[in-house]
Amino acid sequence: MIVKEGSRWVVRAESGRNMGSYATKAEAEKCLKQVEMFKHIRANWAAGKGKPRAKRK
Description:
The chain is an alpha+beta fold and 57 residues long. It has one helix and three strands.
């Protein structure tokens, strides 16, 4: 989740852990997308769906 604290935008985990603070909301949204992507990759790997792979260009 993204919350505004003072003049900064803060990305917080569901547990309340601070994942970083950013000057703009766009930067905070970018970080949140990265966190969600890695959480998804880790969940699939833990479920035995194979090794995480990077996308090729």
